[in-house]
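Board notes (copied after class):
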Amino acid sequence: MRAGHELGALEHHAGATETALAHSRDMASNQYFSHYDPNGVGPFDRMENNSIEFRSAAENLARGQVVPIDVVEGWMNSEHGHREAMLGHYTHTGIGVAFDEENANRPYFTQLYFTKPN
């Protein structure tokens, strides 16, 4: 998808994946859907708390789509900055998916995008 927009592939970052997965699990287990957890901790705080150094960053969330391509298409067709995050000039990514224990058909997706400092 990024190649079709003359952008390089994103490099997988294990720490970002762990951070994204933890947020997806927290949303699923605590029944909320937000960039901020119930304590007000946001994506950049979570990244910093997990020692991820970044110059710029973004986060996309999705809930309820069972097929991952539906998540990607939803983000690409969104008018809320999701497309911009996917097609931004970021270099690294991490994604985490967790399922609602009461409803296995309701996954929570978190994807982080970021560029490391120079």
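Comment from the instructor: The chain has a mean pLDDT of 94. Residues 30 and 55 are 30 Å apart (CA to CA).
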